[in-house]
UniProtKB/TrEMBL annotation:
Ca(2+) binds at T487. Residues 652-738 form the PA domain. Keywords: Calcium, Endoplasmic reticulum, Glycoprotein, Glycosidase, Hydrolase, Metal-binding, Signal, Unfolded protein response. InterPro entries: 6hp_glycosidase-like_sf, EDEM1/2/3, Glyco_hydro_47, PA_dom_sf, PA_domain, Seven-hairpin_glycosidases. Its cofactor is Ca(2+). One of its GO terms (biological process) is endoplasmic reticulum mannose trimming. This is alpha-1,2-Mannosidase. Its EC number is 3.2.1.-. Gene3D superfamilies: 1.50.10.10, 3.50.30.30. GO terms for molecular function: calcium ion binding; mannosyl-oligosaccharide 1,2-alpha-mannosidase activity. The active site is at E144, D289, E383, E401.
Length: 792
């Protein structure tokens, strides 16, 4: 053994020790308490039955895929056939996952080993070696190809060699899967030729970046660029070719440099050439999730302390700005006190699992509990849900993240609550997602309608984690504690650190602060999950639905000159005193009382503006009242991330027209001609916000208002949010969102008027300023006009 590799070996052992000790500390913290045990224990018999049910689920899905879809990438469980790129009607960017390389089988290989099905594993490996090839003129996602294909091949290679050694089987295997993963790695490498070293989001498997379609490629997401290192390091260490690991480390270094130096937070979309941020929202879910995961797991797998130090810096920032009780809400990386979204996405459900691994158990228990309640409320965790736990986006593609966290929480605590949670998740899948040909994604958790889609992660992660949750570690063929689970739940052995890579030495940098890591262990020595969960038990039911019975005057609408408003304020218990002695804090005269009111009004305006700023530029749709064309009313609207911002006194004006069909998801509109130059209204639903915007732009509309499809929703009772896009910036017209109640008002005026209704789309803050200035002008004119009378 060379000096380097023996050092690495020692390091690897030390790492594993740290990791296990951390886990033990957590478990010890948990078990040393004398708090009451959780109520419902699960018998060994029931647990074993559930493990077998998870196994049956696997075979139901796997056989459906193998018999009806293989060698396709995915099974379409409703039509019971395979989904092929370029053959099956395209779903747009989503299809970048598919490379016609039998993805579901490759992604599933290591689950077969965990299930102990060596015969089928051997058969499947032979199929992959025989059938799978990569020389295709197809553009694929670098991130997805890496985590599902490279990771799947590597893990299967490692397990094939493991079985040769420990199960005396597969002696014919000569590392073919490793060769395949090396070839695929090379095909991904052209994506890394950028000035920053941050890889492009997509690459052509045959042509690299020479595909003309990729000429304009420049944007990627943080998770897309930052979820490469585990697989690429394993690839380098197993093949001996350092190029992969070199490129992946460089990408991680470049990303780290892009963090906001004040907040230590990262955005979600960036330009790979300039390193500029395109979207500065910062959370732990979509667009960034596995970047954090790979920082921590790179430390665990490779033992490089700098990744732990980086993880800790980001982690502290997330816990400071993004975490709010059990919730995790996006903020702006450069303005971390401003929340940028009022909803959470289901991808963040992986976070408690990562917190468990890093030793921060208490917030993990809390967030998991919140998610469990969301799941119980809506049957499945919807793709996105609002801060008051209403559905923001009702889809559920049978994602694994919540079950993954449930598994890690159970492993760390031994609390049977997590077995019960897993049971609930399993039974729900059986009841609502199982179809005769596999498991179908849920299109909308409100209706339970299915989608013709079974993503490869259903087999590689969702069912795998269920099986692991109900299995005793000693019953498994491999000791899972000796492996790191990649983000796609592929197994990479900690022993990879022993295969030292001479290219890298473990540097001690100023980023390194192991103490930070030690501090993340729950400081409360008497922590017990049940104790943490208990106060949260009615977290959701206690806080929603949040409706107000009657319409109350909101501060946003208050006008000191309006007698009704003064009365309403009085009824709320606020008394305006306008006469009396100044020394006692009361106004001296009627005029001073008036000034006091005006002062209060200004304070209110200031507060309004502050909260408006925090709401990331609240928008307004304004129109003149029926009575007086000089009198304007503004209805509250939300901005979008993908359309140009209307700043300062900019506005777009036009007559309002409803799209036909109203959802505006087709290729064109029936009233396309009429919509030219108008402010188009389209209803939310059936397709993304940004595709409605593209259609509106295509037909020449001046702006687009997307109105909500949830009856009764209102900006008065729920926070406004900014509509998300897909990272591209091709929408050049303003696009705003209106809740149903606000749109109802607009629609009522439209129906009342004989003429088309002309509106202005602008910033709310600007509208308020405009109104204030107008009121002040009117007041001045009025007082000038009144003076002679008074003097008389
Ligand atoms: C998986 O492909 C991986 O877990 C990835 O990190 C996130 N998305 C899916 C599952 O939801």
């Amino acid at each position: 053994m060379s000096a380097t590799s023996s050092e690495s070996f020692v390091h690897g052992q030390r790492l594993m020790l740290i990791f296990l000790v951390a886990l033990c500390i957590v478990v010890a913290c948990v078990l040393s308490t004398e708090t009451t045990m959780p109520t419902q224990n699960m018998s060994n018999k029931e647990r074993a039955e559930l493990r077998e049910e998870a196994r049956d689920m696997f075979y139901h899905a796997y056989n459906a895929y193998m018999q009806n879809a293989y060698p396709a990438d995915e099974l379409m469980p409703l039509s019971c056939k395979g989904r092929y790129r370029g053959v099956t009607p395209s779903r747009g960017d989503m299809d970048d996952i598919l490379g016609n390389f039998s993805m579901t089988l490759v992604d599933t290989l290591d689950t077969l080993v965990l299930l102990g099905d060596f015969t089928e594993f051997e058969h499947a490996v032979k199929l992959v070696i025989r059938d799978v090839q990569f020389d295709s003129d197809i553009i694929v996602s670098v991130f997805e190809t890496n985590i599902r294909m490279v990771g799947g091949l590597l893990s299967a290679h490692i397990l094939a060699e493991y079985l040769q050694k420990h199960a005396d089987t597969m002696h014919w295997y000569k590392g073919e899967l490793l060769e395949m993963s090396r070839e695929l790695g090379y095909r991904l490498l052209p994506a890394f030729n950028t000035s920053t070293g941050i890889p492009h989001a997509r690459v052509n498997l045959r042509l690299g970046m020479k595909d003309p379609m990729l000429k304009k490629s420049r944007e990627t997401c943080t998770a897309c660029a930052g979820t490469i290192l585990l697989e690429f390091a394993a690839l380098s260490r197993l093949t001996g070719d350092p190029i992969f690991e070199v490129r992946a480390h460089a990408a991680m270094d470049a990303l780290w440099k892009l963090r906001h130096r004040g907040s230590d937070l990262m955005g979600t979309v960036l330009n790979v050439h300039s390193g500029d941020w395109v979207r500065r929202d910062s959370g732990v879910g979509a667009g960034i999730d596995s970047y954090y995961e790979y920082l921590f797991k790179s430390y665990v797998l490779l033992g490089d302390d700098k990744y732990l130090a980086r993880f800790n810096r980001h982690y502290n920032a997330v816990m400071k700005y993004v975490s709010e009780g059990p919730m995790l809400l996006d903020v702006l990386m450069h303005r971390p006190h401003a929340k940028s979204k009022n909803f959470m996405d289901s991808l963040l459900a992986f976070w408690p699992g990562l917190q468990v691994l890093s030793g921060d158990l208490k917030p993990a228990v809390q967030t998991h509990e919140m998610l469990y309640q969301v799941m119980q409320m809506h049957t499945f965790i919807p793709e996105a849900f609002t801060v008051d736990f209403q559905i923001h986006w009702g889809q559920h593609p049978l994602r694994p993240e919540f079950i993954e966290s449930t598994y890690f929480l159970y492993r760390a605590t031994g609390d049977h609550h997590y077995l019960q949670v897993g049971k609930k998740a399993l039974k729900t899948l059986q009841q609502y997602a199982k179809v005769s040909c596999g498991y179908a994604a849920v299109n909308d958790v409100r209706t339970g309608k299915h989608e013709d889609r079974m993503d490869s992660f259903v087999l590689s992660e969702t069912i795998k984690y269920l099986f692991l949750l109900f299995s005793d570690p000693q019953d498994l063929i491999i000791n899972v504690d000796e492996f790191v689970f990649t983000t796609e739940a592929h197994l990479l052995p900690l022993s990879i650190a022993q295969l030292g890579n001479a290219t890298f030495s473990f540097r001690q940098t100023d980023e390194h602060n192991v103490l930070d890591f030690m501090r993340t262990c729950p400081s409360s020595n008497r922590l017990f999950p049940e104790k943490v969960r208990k106060p949260l038990r009615n977290f959701i039911t206690g806080s929603c639905p949040r409706t107000t019975a009657g319409k109350r005057l909101s501060a946003l609408d208050f006008q000191a000159s309006n007698a009704d408003h003064l009365r309403a304020v009085y009824d709320m218990g606020i008394t305006m005193v306008s006469v009396g002695d100044r020394s006692q804090g009361k106004a001296k005269s009627h005029e001073e009382g008036e000034m006091g009111l005006q002062f209060m009004q200004e304070m209110l305006e200031l507060t309004k503006m502050q909260s408006i700023n925090q709401l990331a530029q609240l928008q307004a749709v304004a129109y003149a009242t029926d009575e007086n064309p000089q009198d304007w009313i503004a209805l509250m609207a939300g901005p979008s991330h993908f359309s140009p911002e209307l700043t300062g006194d900019q506005f777009v004006q036009g007559d309002v027209i409803l799209a036909k069909p109203l959802r505006a998801c087709d290729e064109s509109l029936e009233n396309a001609e009429e919509a030219k130059g108008k402010v188009l209204v389209a209803e939310r639903g059936d397709c993304t916000f940004v595709s409605k915007a593209r259609l509106a732009q295509k037909v020449g509309a001046a702006a687009l208002i997307v109105c909500d499809n949830v009856p009764g929703s209102s900006g008065e009772t729920q926070p406004m949010f900014a509509m998300s896009g897909d990272g591209k910036d091709d929408v050049l017209i303003p696009v705003v969102f209106m809740y149903s109640m606000e749109f109802g008002k607009l629609s009522a005026v439209m129906q009342r008027r004989k003429q088309p209704l002309r509106v202005r789309v602008m910033q709310m803050v600007e509208f308020k300023r405009w109104q204030l200035a107008k009121e002040q002008r009117q007041n001045q004119t009025a007082s000038v006009a009144q003076k002679p009378d008074k003097e008389l």
